[in-house]
Amino acid sequence: MARPSLVDLLRFIAREEPLTSTVRAFRGLTREHLGQLLEEVADRLGPGASSAPVPSSPAPVVPPTEVARGAGPVPRLRVYSDGAARGNPGPAGAGAVVKDAEGRVVARLGRFLGVQTNNFAEYSALLLGLQHARGLGASEVEVFADSELLIRQLGGRYQVKSPTLKPLFDEAKRLLAGFSSVKLTHVPRAQNAEADEMSNRAIDERM
C-alpha cells in the first residue's frame, strides 16, 4: 500500500476527525473553521506524489458557523434536523442546524447521501446534528424535526420495522443516551426551514 501524502492526511483529518481538543484549546476557533484551515493548507501544498486515495466519506460541514465558541463545552444545544429525497428513493440529503440555548446558530451542516429514501435521510440528518452537538461537549440536547415517524420511533411510540432504518435508529438512541437530558419535539415543516434548506443544499451542491 502506497504511503499517504501530507495532502491526503490533512484532508482526511479535516473531514473525519472531531478535532475537539484542538477547538477547546484555542478560544474562538470552531470545528468548521479548523476543518477549512486544514483544507486550505492541503490546497496550497498541492496534490503530492502519493497515489493513496482521499477518503470518500462526504464532509458534513461547508459554511462557517455564525457563533464563535470559546474553549469550554456548550452545555445545552438545540438540534434542528431534516432530510430530503427527490423521488423517494432518489437523490437525498441530510441537513441539520445546531443552535445554543439562546437560539443563536452554532453550525449549519449538510451531507449528500446518494440515492436514498426520505426516512433514511431524516435519520441521517439527526445523526449529523447529534454528532456535532456531542463534539461540542453538550450535556443537554433538544431535538426538533418535522418527521413524525422519526420522533415517535425515538420516543417509543412506533416500532422500527425497516431493516434499513434499524441501524440508524440504534445509533441515534446510542448518541441520545450520551446526553444527561434529551427532549424530542415534532415541529411543522415551516418551523424547520433552516434544516430543510441545508438538506436541499446538500443535494444541489453535493456536500
CATH class of the largest domain: Alpha Beta
- What is the name of the CATH superfamily of the largest domain? Ribonuclease H-like superfamily/Ribonuclease H
| Computed CA radius of gyration, to the nearest angstrom | 17 Å
Output the CATH topology of the largest domain: Nucleotidyltransferase, domain 5
Q: How many domains in all?
A: 2
Report the structural category.
Answer: alpha/beta
Strand order of the largest sheet: 3-2-1-4-5
Structure in words:
With 207 residues, the chain is of the alpha/beta class. It has two domains: 6-45, no CATH class; 76-205, Nucleotidyltransferase, domain 5 (2-Layer Sandwich), CATH 3.30.420.10. Helix content is 40%, strand content 22%. The chain is built from seven helices and five strands, in the order H-H-H-E-E-E-H-E-H-H-E-H. The chain has helices at 6-16, 20-25, 31-45, 118-135, 148-154, 166-177, 193-205, and strands at residues 76-85, 90-100, 105-116, 140-145, 181-186. It has a five-stranded mixed sheet with strand order 3-2-1-4-5. A hairpin with a 4-residue loop joins strand 2 (90-100) and strand 3. The longest helix is centred in the middle third of the chain and has 18 residues, at 118-135. Residues 48-71 have low confidence and may be disordered.
Provide key terms for this protein.
single chain; 207 residues; alpha/beta; Nucleotidyltransferase, domain 5; 2 domains; globular
What's this entry about, in short?
With 207 residues, this protein is of the alpha/beta class.
